[in-house]
Here is the input.
Amino acid sequence: MVDTKNQYLKIKNEVDTAIHEVLDSAAYINGKAVQEFAKSLNAYIGSQYTIPCANGTDALQIAMMALGLEPGDEVITPSFTYIATTEVVALLKLKPVFVEVDAKTFCIDPESVRKAITPKTKAIVPVHLYGHAAPMEEIMQIAKEHNLFVIEDNAQAIGCDYQFSDGTIKKTGSIGHIGCTSFYPSKNLGAYGDGGAIFTNDEVLADRMKMIANHGQKLRYYHDLVGCNSRLDSIQAAVLNIKLRELNHYNAARQKAANFYDKAFMGHDYITTPYKAPYSTHVYHQYTLLLNGASRDGLNAYLAEKKIPSMIYYPVPGHKQKVFATFGLDHCTLETTDWLTERVISLPMHTELDEEQLAYIVSETLSYLNK
Ligand SMILES: *Cc1c(COP(=O)(O)O)cnc(C)c1O
Here is the structure.
């Protein structure tokens, strides 16, 4: 699905030098590279404050801890997402309220959000799934009407541009009250280990989140809040500093591969290629097809036989996960989510795909579907 090795080889000299600089400096935690990376990333995203942390899941957790929520408060999230988004809600004794996604964009459906709001609702967590933006303008409008926080899960969409109806363009992750992202190696901006970051334009929230990520202290050994220990290490920051400079090229390479797939699959009776809404660019963290009329699991198995990796993101939606069985979801029916869950299949998508590989993946996919 990914080829981080060949991507590394192209920047090997720079990366190796940067890693050795960190080793020589012996500032493994919170060294110069971390400060530099936070500054560059902040400028790239167009945010006021960027707080590096240990991973994307921690970023979401720290964001939710900073909002001062009470146990039982409700957080609205799509069910059609990775577990991390909803797991942290449960971990903090908050109640995940699962809503629908739009069948075209795979992102949170504003109408479904409106219907799910109760007096206990405190926050909405839109996910920019597969590299496509959630409808942020509508989500921010709903949040404003109901006085709710918005935390963007931007783990899959770093570099994606969102266009507002007045023409303003912002990077996803910089639009909500808080934005969260992940530098897991396979993400669009991937480290060589774990990493994450939190974005906000709110000084008070930034201050709280910085403290929470550091054991609730501002002054060493004086702990004012219950926090956690969530740091980005200097070696990962040094790697990310170099890769951030390449991010636009990386996303362009993904778009080029997606374009190749699109052209090959366009108009096929059984295939819906990824949709791109007018308000969003697409950075193709995943290239996900919707199969209707052919067996998705059959294609998955056939591709495996041909040594082509393919994946189902995600085979079980949140509202059907055992972990949430005690969360009173018996009456939670999400027809679109269930429908999509049975039909999505993701093909290899990364920066190093060449035309020969793409042509092979396409021809085997079509050969199965046209049988
Ligand atoms: C990867 C991911 C996360 C979590 O990031 P980690 O760095 O793996 O903790 C959260 N949400 C989504 C949608 C993701 O894809």
Remarks:
- The mean pLDDT is 97.
- The first strand starts at residue 49 and ends at 53.
- The domain at 4-99+106-241 is CATH 3.40.640.10 (Aspartate Aminotransferase; domain 2).
